[in-house]
Prior knowledge:
The complex is a heterodimer.
Chain A: H1 10-49, H2 52-86, H3 88-122, H4 129-158, E1 163-165, E2 172-174, H5 177-181, H6 184-214, H7 219-254, H8 256-263, E3 269-270, E4 274-279, E5 288-292, H9 295-301, E6 307-308, H10 311-322, H11 331-360, H12 368-376, H13 379-396, E7 399-401, E8 405-406, H14 407-410, H15 416-447, H16 450-454
Antiparallel strand pairs in A: 1-2, 3-6, 4-5, 7-8
Chain B: H1 14-47, H2 51-61, H3 65-82, H4 84-93, H5 95-114, H6 121-151, H7 171-195, H8 198-232, H9 242-259, H10 263-285, E1 288-290, E2 300-301, H11 302-305, H12 309-336
Antiparallel strand pairs in B: 1-2
Helix pairs in contact in B: 1-2, 1-3, 1-6, 1-7, 1-10, 3-4, 5-6, 6-7, 7-8, 7-10, 8-9, 9-10
Amino acid sequence: MTNLLAGISPLVLARWQFGVTTVFHFLFVPLTIGLAFLVAVLQTAFYKTKKPEYDRLARFYGKLFLVNFAIGVVTGIVQEFQFGMAWSHYSTFVGNIFGAPLAIEALLAFFMESTFIGLWIFGRDRLSPRLHLASIWLVSLGTTLSAAFIIAANSWMQHPVGYKIDQATGQAVMTNFWAVMSNSTFISAYLHVLTAALATGATFLLGIAAWHLKKKNDTSAFAKAAAIGVVVLLLSTLATMFMGDNQARLMTQQQPMKMAAAEALYNSENGASFSLLTIGNLSGDPVFQIRVPHALSVMATGQWNGKVAGINELQAADVAKYGPGNYKPMLWVTYWSFRLMIGFGMLMLLLGVLGIWLLWRGKLPTSRRYLTFATWMIGAPFLANSFGWIFTEVGRQPWIVYGLMFTAKGVSPVGTGYFATSLIGFTVLYGVLAIVEISLMFTLARRGTAELIESDDTPDDEQAERPFALIY
Amino acid sequence: MTSALTLATAGPSGLAIFWFALIGVLWVGYFLLEGFDFGVGVLYPFLGRDDLDKRMMINAIGPTWDGNEVWLLTAGGATFAAFPLWYATVFSGFYLALFLILVALIARGMAFEFRGKRDSARWRFWWDTAIVVGSFLPALLWGVAFANFLHGVPIAANGTWVGGFFQLVKPYALLGGLTTLSLFTLHGAAFLGLRTTGDLRERSRSIAMKLAIPTLVITFGFFLWTYLDAVHRHHSGLVPPFLPILALLALAAVGWLVRERLEGWAFTATAFTIVGWTATMFLALYPRVLVSSIAPRFDLTIANSASQHYTLMAMTIIALIFTPFVLAYQAWSYWVFRQRIRRPGEEIAPEGVETPSVPASTDG
């Protein structure tokens, strides 16, 4: 073991572990946020209209939601523990500020979602329909609040505000809680993540409905699901892009190196163009590129001829400000993850636009080519979400807290062997979970609503004492 | 991060003491609630004779286990925010132990949700294994960890760790682990006696009666060792030991209460013992948060590891506003699911004198 690990630093292993566990966790989180909301909408539609189709949809998607929710919850525990386990110097340095949103997240959001998810799963026959409906809305609120606090914490790492460095301890300490919670980076990133989560849920809703529509299963219900999915998808994708655009300008001001790294722009330029793709390397000497004139300047500054600072200029400025060192993130990662995020987002926009057009023409449930496209697109939001996070986290490097602490300084003084053990352990465990989860999702998604059509809803006699049904 | 110990000379602020106590309360809540979840998981292979038994056991904790686990997350978050150095030192120092606990909690949580989703014996076998191992390991390891906090871990200045994982494995710590394991298992048996009917309820009672005396002996041994150690080190937090004595008295009554079919009281007694055990650990620690086995001057204390006043104040305001709501809706969810789990098809027994109504009032 020791020989095998010679030359591998704990830092590299700790970073891989954080990357693997976080990307994995965030595969499930946006779907939980988006689907909690959409299931709540479906259940509300049933509550208001009493149409049995909405009930079937709420139950069917509710079941898929629960499979996804469970894995999001258990992988979330790792996230909270990991800061202390693998990044203890970071934790000591930022605890005064970073710890607060995490604690508040647990108190406000985790208790709410975990308690009301229990009430929602087991309370169908024990609560009044109104309270049962309120439970899923509170789950949805809980997931939304949870995202708010964790992104407030992350935004502080991207753009620290409301703090000072304590001279005695060297720790960053909080001076203004409201500044932390109203950080411009936070507001922008939160809305971007929230709308992306909604788009993820909508693509999932639409994609599975499309599969069943193509098979002509329960078309009365799935046509409704597809319609809701298309409308929510279009609106949320547009909102995600709007917020992403807003974030790009903030990033240009707050983390100019990240913007330059997104394009691998070496020399500062006015009216800079944006390359859609590059063949060859990213060292400023490409073999082939497709470039959109002025697009980078518009994205970064909002002006046709705005100045975008290049990597060379920023590197020199950072050396002057922080001392000698390499302040460039891994360019091939930032360059490609940025394009893949936007690319998959654009595909989702296309899915939404085509879908709205078909819906308007009344052809949404029958257009076979579109339905096939929609089913294949289920994977797109997950890829877009992952590449987005990879871009924003890798783009912040070499900083763990931008301008205040290097990632290399934050890692725990824990041996390479321990890190290797947990990295391998988590990777294997998560790999198994992924296989189990995906196969279960497929099975349940294919099963559709057939079993729900027979079981017609019993009238609401909440007074009657029924035996506790075995749910699990 | 020059030296966090420069603050050590000053005593802890009232607000820092309040947060130490609050974190103690969060651990009390966690052990009290997830304690019986773990116990149900440990007893799972012994009490679950067939698939229906097993499903009844999982369903008994089904609506609430996830909410119970949030007490741990809140304790972790509160420690991060209020005592960053304590959080960082403990979590990095207990790296492998926490890794095992995480794997256990992940496997167990997935098992509850996934076990019933496929009709296959092999599928259920693997999830059953996850439930048992995933309950056993944390029940044991939390005790090992808390015993180590108190008995001392190899830390030098600023919580710098100077020892390995296997230094955490020592007789006192193992006894601590056995204590939590046996207490949680007994607590789980008392819980099942209260929440199930028929055969499963009778088997839970009989196993609780068998476990009561060994658990008492182990817990007594652990308290005695802890007490003598405190006296030996001239640490007065536990002297006189009122709380351990009360906890032991409650524990001594469990076997009798179960035999007399006072199941609500039996559960109350195991709950009280767990509250007493956890509170004893925090009282014995005070005013330290993590004891150094190298020298007392390296101890992490409330004073030298707390966050600054501003953070503690902001957190206090938020906690005071929102905690009542959390307690109210969690208590309400226990009230909603207060009914016993019946075996499907089982005759509904006439409600006798032993109808329990205690759980809603003992959920912390």
